[in-house]
């Protein structure tokens, strides 16, 4: 039975096409449109400092003058979604993606059950000395195969570009490093510490060494001021990284014309042994709540806020993740907030939100309120995660959600019985714009997140099949708002005010 359950989960994504969006699905009783916002202009001026970045022309100067002088400094990074790898079939690509989703969820459940997560001392109030925004572009990598979003980051002195996976569900930043003793295949060279004048190891006597787990066979710290700090970070049975904890300079592009900013002393993992489903990326940029994440380490400079906008799966367009406040996002007419769950959660890494219920077709479903609670052992609860593809709800809630769609759509389109992947699925052959009931999440503080139809239904053309892109997890597991459901929303992590923001946006237009 366990193998069948795992196989079912693995199959859940096989037909979710990474290159076919679902613009032809509309919601019943919905006349709303997606209102847009504009990001600050992006300038990839790091090329002037020796990086192999392509300069992008923009009217930065005029827009910069529009920014309020009191606005927070921010940093922006490039981000894209990556989808099917060249030479592989769609089925092979998504079997890989589904396998990673399944392993990731199992790992997150185990990590959530841990207690006593190490914490770094709280930082002082953020400095407001910088006037630039720190921005990167989030990309849908068309050439590599998985469900994550990728960011270009420049590391070392001189700075060299590396494409890293953006992950709000983990903390450690790491790159594959030379000598690469056991590594997965990546595009471009691995990071070479010997080629960077700013690289230095964290020693085993450094207090930051206590923030990472040692390898399974830890070595003795005989010279605390000299010996390196070994680490082991796991994501699942097939995904882990082992190496030395280190400090390095990360160079990023700024919105000011011709400007770049070097952030020194960023803690990261120099991974010499790395295994897992990372598919061509150079490493991972952790944006979780833990003290070692990139977002946490930058708070003292850029404040306690970061945000991103995820392009559609398979899109070749890029959008941005912003560290620091973005005044245009804050002024968005449809920006809503909901409070994060208490930070005393057993899993400091994850961003928990407090769900109260789910609405389908405008009606609040009959789901017991305790379904959404976090248990004392760390089980349950709801997180928002950029590294999980689909959205998952604990089984009691999922069954009610599924049945609500079946009841409302039974007379509209023929149900495909026993479809071996997502469920329910319908035959919509010949229907240009199928209509589906609205889906919304209701939070405990009254906030409501309304989703466009293409964020929870996927159309599998040319077969004329349309499926609900939501799955169930065991009752003891957690519910997850995945990146498929976050597409075309600007999502704001405001940790100063302990809240999550969301506003509709065509992210490819950013």
TrEMBL record:
Keywords of the record: Aspartyl protease, Glycoprotein, Hydrolase, Protease, Signal
Region (Disordered): 59-93
CDD domains: pepsin_A_like_plant
Biased composition (Basic and acidic residues): 82-93
Any GO BP annotation: proteolysis
Secretion signal, residue range per the UniProt entry: 1-21
Annotated organism of origin: Zea mays
Gene expressing this chain: LOC103647650
Name recorded for this polypeptide: Eukaryotic aspartyl protease family protein
Alphabetical list of SUPFAM superfamilies matching this protein: Acid proteases (SSF50630)
Domain Peptidase A1: start-end pairs: 149-503
Family designation: Belongs to the peptidase A1 family.
Gene Ontology MF: a single term: aspartic-type endopeptidase activity
Active site as annotated: 167, 385
């Amino acid at each position: 039975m366990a193998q069948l359950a795992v196989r079912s989960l693995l199959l859940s994504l096989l037909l979710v096409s990474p290159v076919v969006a679902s613009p032809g699905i509309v919601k019943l009783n919905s006349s709303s449109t997606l209102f847009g916002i504009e990001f600050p202009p992006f300038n990839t001026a790091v090329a002037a400092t020796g990086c192999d970045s392509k300069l992008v022309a923009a009217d930065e100067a005029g827009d910069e003058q529009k920014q309020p002088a009191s606005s927070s400094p921010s940093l922006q990074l490039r981000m894209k979604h990556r989808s099917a790898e060249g030479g592989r079939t769609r089925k092979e690509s998504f079997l890989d993606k589904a396998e990673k989703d399944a392993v990731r969820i199992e790992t997150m459940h185990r990590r959530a059950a841990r207690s006593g997560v190490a914490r770094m001392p709280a930082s002082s109030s953020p400095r407001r000395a910088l006037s630039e925004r720190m921005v990167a572009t989030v990309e849908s990598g068309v050439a590599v195969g998985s469900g994550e979003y990728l960011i270009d980051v420049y590391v070392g002195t001189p700075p060299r570009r590396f494409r890293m996976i953006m992950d709000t569900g983990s903390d450690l930043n790491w790159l594959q490093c030379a000598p690469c003793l056991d590594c997965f295949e990546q595009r471009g060279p691995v990071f070479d510490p010997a080629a960077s004048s700013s690289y230095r190891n964290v020693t085993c006597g450094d207090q930051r060494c206590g923030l990472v787990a040692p390898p399974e066979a830890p070595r003795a710290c005989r010279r605390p001021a000299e010996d390196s700090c070994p680490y082991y970070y796991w994501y699942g049975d097939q995904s882990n990284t082992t190496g030395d904890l280190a400090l390095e300079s990360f160079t990023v592009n700024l919105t000011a014309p011709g400007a770049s900013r070097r952030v020194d002393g960023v803690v990261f993992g120099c991974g010499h042994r790395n295994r897992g489903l990372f598919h061509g990326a150079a490493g991972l940029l952790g944006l979780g709540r833990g003290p070692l994440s990139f977002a946490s380490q930058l708070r003292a400079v850029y404040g306690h806020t970061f945000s991103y906008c995820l392009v559609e799966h398979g899109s070749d367009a890029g959008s941005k993740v912003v560290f620091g406040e973005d005044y245009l996002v804050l002024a968005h007419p449809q920006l809503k907030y909901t409070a994060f769950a208490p930070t005393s959660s057993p899993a400091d890494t994850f961003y928990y939100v407090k769900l109260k219920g789910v609405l389908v077709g405008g009606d609040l479903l009959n789901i017991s309120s305790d379904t959404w609670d976090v248990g004392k052992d760390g089980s349950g609860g709801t997180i928002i995660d950029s590294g999980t593809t689909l959205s998952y709800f604990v089984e009691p809630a999922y069954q009610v959600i599924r049945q609500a769609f079946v009841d409302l759509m039974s007379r509209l389109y023929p149900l495909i019985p026993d479809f071996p992947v997502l469920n329910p699925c319908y035959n919509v052959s010949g229907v240009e714009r199928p209509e589906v009931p609205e889906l919304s999440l209701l939070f405990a503080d009254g906030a409501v997140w309304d989703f466009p139809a293409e964020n929870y239904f996927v159309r599998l053309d040319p077969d004329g099949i349309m499926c609900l892109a939501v799955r169930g997890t065991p009752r003891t597991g957690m519910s997850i708002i995945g990146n498929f459901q976050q597409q075309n929303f600007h999502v704001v992590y405001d940790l100063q005010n302990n809240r999550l923001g969301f506003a509709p946006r065509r992210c490819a237009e950013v």
